[in-house]
User: What shape does this take?
Amino acid sequence: MLFSIVTRGSLPRFLVTCLACGALLGGPVVFPLPHRAAAKVRSGLSALESQLLAAPAPERARQTLRTLTAKPHLAGTPEDYATALYVRDELQRAGFDVELVEYEVYLPRPKSRRVEMTAPTKYRCTLTEPTLPDDPDSASPLAVPTFAAWSPSAKVEAPVVYVNYGLPRDYEVLEKLGVSVQGKIALVRYGECYRGVKAQVAQEKGAVGLLVYSDPKDDGYVQGKTYPDGPWRTDNCVQRGSYRAFTQPPGDPLTPGRPAKKGTSRLAPKDAGLPRIPIQPLSYRDALPILESLRGPAAPKDWIGGLPIEYRIGNGETRVRMALTMDYRLRTIWNVIGTLTGRDHPDEWILLGNHRDAWVYGAVDPSSGTTAMLEVARAFGELRKTGWQPRRTIKLCSWDAEEYGLIGSTEWVEEHLTELREKAVCYLNVDSAVSGDNFRASAVPSLWSFTKSVLQDVPDASGTRSLYDNWRAQDQKASEVRFGKLGSGSDYAPFLQLAGIACLDMASTGSYGVYHSTYDSFRWMEKFGDPTFSRHAAMARGWALLAFRLAESPRIELNLLDYAREIERLARELAQEHPQLDATALLDAARDLTIAAEAFETEPDTQATLAIRNRLRRQFEGFLLAPEGLPKRYDARHVVYAPGVFSGYGAEVFSGVRYALTRNDAADVARAMEQIVTALKKATRTLQGQPSGKKDTQPVRKGVL
Ligand SMILES: [Zn+2]
Assistant: This one.
C-alpha cells in the first residue's frame, strides 16, 4: 500500500532567485536540522546543501520500510514486482525520469527438501523457521522455505564429516588426521568466507553433499540475547543464500558476458558451472542432533563452536540422507532506474544503487538501503521543486536478484558497458544500510579524501556528531578512519570489476544475527536496528550529500594521487610479504604512477583543461582493469582489488598474483605481475600525456571554476 509523502513548505524567495541562475550560495547558513546537529558539524554548507540535509525524515523512513517489508519479496515474484512499481512511483513523484528494466534470468526455488539422519539414531530436520508470537510477520506463507540457491535437485545418503568452516585449510587438518570427505556429506558452519567457497571446496574435495549450519558462537546466543529478546540468531533461524562460486562469470549463469534479454541465446544449464552437489542450510537446532551423534577424532580447539556438545569429526557411523528438488526456470526480474539529467554535463553520470529483492522480508538486507535511497530521491525532489537541476546526471538504481548473485546489476552493466565506461563518474552503493549505529565505508582510494570531507558535514543519527566522527570513534587508537577494501558481495562488484568505475559502499552496522532469515523483519528493525529510524535518515543524508557534491563540483572529485600512493604502499607490502617474488618492475611502475599523479594533482584546473582533466579522472579506474581478466578468474579484472578466491566477500589486493602464489603457478604469477605493470604503465602514460593549457574542444561553461 502506498502512502502520501510528507510535504514541506516552499523555499524562501531569495533562494529561488539564486537557484534560477544556477549558482551555489557559498556563505555559511543556518543549519535547519530540528536537533542539536547544527553546532556539531562544519559550517559553510550552501543553502541547497542545508536543504538537502534537512529533507530525510525518520518517520517517513519508518513508513517506507513498513511498505517495503509488508510482504516477502524474493526476486522474480509478484511481490517483488510490486516493490518495483512502488519504487518506480516514488522516484517519479520525486521528479526522476524512471525506467523499469526487465531481464529474463535463470533462478532456482525449492520445491521439496528432506534432510534426515538415518544412523546411529533417526532425526528428521524441520528445515522451517517457526512463527514467533512477538513478530506477526514471521507467519507469512509467502516466505520461501529455507534453501541453498544453486543447489541441484539430488538424492544422496552418506556418512557425515564435520569440517569447521569448510575452507581449504580445514581440509588440510582433516588430511593430517587421515580423514577424507570423498563420498561423504560435509557438515560445515557458516562464517569466515562467502558460502559459495564452502560449496566449491567441498565439491573439489569429493564430498557428495553439503550441510551448512549457523553455529551459536558465530551469530547466536554466544554473541548475546537471541531474537525476539535480542538481535542474535535463534535456534530455529536459518541463513539462506547463494552458493554460486565467485570464480564463475557473474550475473545470470546462462548468459555470461551479455544482457539476459528475452530471446537472447543461452547456455545449457549443465554448462553454466553451477554446483553439482546438493546443499542445504540448517539452523543449529537441526544441526545439533547430527553433530552430537558424531564420533571419531575430537575436533581441533578452534573448530569448537558454541553448542553444549563435544565437537567431533565423525567416524562414518553418522549417516544423513538428503533429498532436494529444485524448481529451476527462466524468470523475469525488474531493475528500476531513475534519472535526473544533468544541466551542464548530461553525459557524466553519478550512479547510486541498492538492491531491492530480499530472501524474505529483508528489513535490513536490503530494504533499509531501499528506504535510504527513497529518502535520497525525496531530498533531491525537494531541490527540484526550487528549479534546481544537477550539473551532472544523477541516476538512482534499484537492482533485482542481487541475492542470487548480483544478477540485476550485472545484467544492466553488461547491457550498458560501453556507455558506462564512457560516462560514469562513480557508483555509490548501499546494501544493508542500517543494522546498528556504527557507520563504515569501503571505497577505492580516489574517493577517500572527498568522502571523509563530505561525511564531516553530515550529522549522524544522534545529531551530536558527524558521520565521520561516528566512524572515527569506533577505533580511538587509529589516527584516521580506515576505508574497507572492496571485494564482492554486493552490487558494486560489476561496476568495479567489469566496467572499471570508482566505487564506494556504506553501511551503519550493529549486532545483527537474523541475516537472510524470516526474522530480518520490520519488527526486528523497530526493536533493535533503528527504533527511531534516525539512522536511516542519517544514511540518506550522507548518501545524498556525496551525490550532490559529486554532481555539482566543477572538478570531478576523484583524487588520483591518493590512489597512486596507496597502490605504491600496497606494492611495497606485497614485496615484503613475498621476498622470493621479483617485484622490481611492479615497484618501479607504482613509483612512476605516483610521480605522474603528483604532477597531475599539482597542476591547477583551468577553463581550458578542466573538461579533459575531468575525463581522465573519470577514466582512471578503468586503466586498472586487465581486459582479459585475472589468471584463472572470470569474475575479476581489476588488477589491484578483487574478491579473494577463498574469502569471496573480502577483497584481496593484487589477487591475481596472490592466487597464483597459493597454487605455486610460476607462469600465472608472471602473467599477473605483467597485468599489473601494464595497467599501471598505461595509467602513467595517460596522466603524463594529458595536455595542459591546450584549448579543449568540449565547451566549458563560463564561471565554473
Ligand atoms: Zn543485500
In short: Residues 106-330 form a domain with the Glucose Oxidase; domain 1 fold (CATH 3.50.30.30). Residues 355, 365-366, 402, 431-432 surround zinc ion (CB under 6 Å).
